[in-house]
Automatic annotation (TrEMBL):
Residue ranges, annotated region (Disordered): 57-80
A Pfam family this chain is assigned to: Methyltransf_11
Superkingdom, taxonomy of origin: Bacteria
Keyword Metal-binding recorded: no
Gene3D superfamilies the UniProt entry points to: Vaccinia Virus protein VP39
Species of the source: Streptomyces kanasensis
InterPro entries registered for this protein in UniProt: Methyltransf_11, SAM-dependent_MTases_sf
Name of the protein: Methyltransferase type 11
Keyword Chaperone recorded: no
Length: 256
């Protein structure tokens, strides 16, 4: 669903053979794969072991003759690491020139708190003037999916005693950059609609984001699935497909 966001970032920063990229919270590796096919040398780190394993499968070295553009040059071998960014230093001592945090923030209260220490650690391994990309959800009125995420916040309140959902704010990314000691250097907005073949697929897809995990703990799987299904009702089209228009925002910052 976030491919348009990744493409917009990579186009703007001209990601290619000269790029040495560190992806924070790399997840299952799709964004890294897209950068690697452009010729970038990529390292990804995540605290979810299962997703790191999937990323390793996705970015497994290609056989000779199947490299970028099909010209026979294999893409640089990726590094996929389980743990915190502190373990991601390049063995050769080469500094990164691009750090990405492409898991959007802005729908869960405090979802940026853990990212600031990760950014601080990553900046120590990057070159001065290098780019750092932060991403977030757009305004709630432009993001249909945020209405569904309110379900997670309401159910999680039972567990935490407070609403875990909050609307994305205009300066979320700038504030996080400032906390990490970064200098903003431009931003953009990208349309990323979420489309599913049917309601069941939409429920499974939304649950896979991890944003409903706390809600499941607070209630139970069946209750969460029922609440999501009801919240999706407005986005079911006559043919049964589910379509939710969203806008995401990215910020490019520089390491001083």
């Amino acid at each position: 669903m976030l491919v348009p966001l990744y493409e917009a970032v990579y186009e703007r920063l001209e990601v290619g053979t000269g790029t040495r990229l560190l992806g924070l919270g790399c997840g299952s590796g799709l964004a890294l794969l897209m950068a690697a096919t452009r010729g970038a040398r990529v390292t990804g780190v995540d605290t979810d072991r299962a997703r790191v394993d999937l990323a390793r499968e996705r970015l497994a070295p290609e056989p000779p003759g199947h490299g970028p553009g099909g010209h026979g040059a294999a893409r640089p071998e990726p590094r996929l690491l389980y743990g915190s960014p502190d373990i991601a230093a390049d063995p050769a001592g080469t500094a990164y020139n691009l750090v990405t945090a492409l898991q959007p923030i802005g729908c869960t209260a405090g979802d940026s708190d853990g990212l600031v220490p990760s950014l601080t650690a990553a900046v120590r391994m990057a070159e001065r003037g290098g780019a750092v990309v932060l991403t977030g959800w757009g305004p709630p009125e432009r993001c249909a999916t945020t209405a569904v995420f309110r379900v997670a916040g309401r159910l999680t309140e039972r567990l935490r005693g407070r609403d875990a959902w909050r609307p994305a704010l205009r300066d979320d990314l700038e504030e996080m950059a400032a906390r990490a000691g970064l200098r903003p250097d431009g931003s953009g907005r990208v349309s990323c609609p979420f489309g599913y073949a049917d309601t069941d697929s939409a429920v499974r897809g939304l649950l896979s984001t991890g944003l409903f995990d706390a809600a499941v703990r607070a209630a139970d799987q069946a209750t969460v699935e029922k609440e999501i299904t009801e919240a999706l009702h407005s986005y079911v089209r006559p043919d049964g497909t589910v379509w939710m228009p969203n806008v995401f925002r990215y910020l490019v910052a520089r390491i001083p």
